[in-house]
């Protein structure tokens, strides 16, 4: 009789254990998710100081709020929940710096790879919407992503992408028109 090796706990299980104060589970969750999270955040901002702050704030929030994770709601996953926290912390970091007239150092002007939340959105909203999102020009998709998915204002999107506010407004309008046409 062949024995199966013990299965590693998934991230949802690690998060539930973290909610009970299990430090080893939290450390394992961090070990599994932090490299991926840092990469995703660097697609949004290459300022190492901001990334470090966001990572620290994210995992502090995960430790403190692990008990509030409700993975069963809307088919959410632990990794998606961590990403949501991180995006909100990144938005907060940009908002703190929004009073500057220029983007924070190292902010990318374009994203080279689809972000995880883009892929998740495309998978959850249906094939036609996912296809419409993928068919958008990259400069339209990144504005739509920042404003619709991340909840950034026009000014914050302009800072994030290093664009004038008028350009952001124009691209957002063009993206909405293109999405409407693709879906009709």
Automatic annotation (TrEMBL):
GO molecular function: DNA binding; sigma factor activity
Keywords: Membrane, Sigma factor, Transcription, Transcription regulation, Transmembrane, Transmembrane helix
Pfam hit, one: Sigma70_r4_2
Domain RNA polymerase sigma-70 region residue range list: 29-98
Regions that span the bilayer: 65-87
UniProt domain RNA polymerase sigma factor 70 region 4 type: residue ranges: 129-178
SUPFAM superfamilies noted in UniProt: Sigma2 domain of RNA polymerase sigma factors, Sigma3 and sigma4 domains of RNA polymerase sigma factors
Gene Ontology terms describing biological process: DNA-templated transcription initiation
InterPro entries: RNA_pol_sigma-70-like, RNA_pol_sigma-70_dom, RNA_pol_sigma70_r2, RNA_pol_sigma70_r4_t2, RNA_pol_sigma_r2, RNA_pol_sigma_r3/r4-like, WH-like_DNA-bd_sf
Keyword Transcription regulation on entry: yes
ATP-binding among keywords: no
Coiled coil location: none
Signal peptide extent: none
UniProt similarity note: Belongs to the sigma-70 factor family. ECF subfamily.
PANTHER family reported in the protein's UniProt record: RNA POLYMERASE ECF-TYPE SIGMA FACTO, RNA POLYMERASE SIGMA-70 FACTOR ECF SUBFAMILY
The protein's name: RNA polymerase sigma factor
Organism: Amycolatopsis dendrobii
Taxonomy of the source species: Bacteria, Bacillati, Actinomycetota, Actinomycetes, Pseudonocardiales
């Amino acid at each position: 009789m062949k024995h199966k090796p013990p299965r590693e706990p998934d991230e949802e299980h690690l998060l539930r254990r973290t909610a009970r104060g299990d430090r080893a589970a939290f450390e394992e969750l961090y070990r599994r998710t932090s490299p991926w999270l840092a990469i995703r955040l660097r697609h949004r901002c290459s300022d190492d100081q901001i990334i470090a702050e966001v990572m620290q704030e994210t995992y502090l929030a995960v430790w403190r709020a692990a008990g509030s994770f409700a993975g069963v709601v809307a088919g959410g996953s632990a990794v998606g929940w961590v990403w949501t926290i991180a995006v909100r912390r990144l938005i907060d970091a940009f908002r703190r710096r929004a009073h500057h007239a220029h983007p924070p150092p190292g902010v990318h002007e374009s994203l080279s790879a689809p972000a995880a939340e883009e892929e998740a959105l495309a998978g959850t909203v249906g094939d036609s919407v996912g296809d419409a999102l993928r068919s958008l020009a990259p400069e339209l998709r990144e504005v739509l992503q920042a404003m619709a998915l991340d909840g950034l204002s026009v000014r914050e999107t302009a800072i994030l992408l290093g664009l004038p506010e008028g350009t952001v407004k124009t691209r957002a309008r063009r993206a909405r028109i293109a999405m409407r046409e693709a879906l009709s």
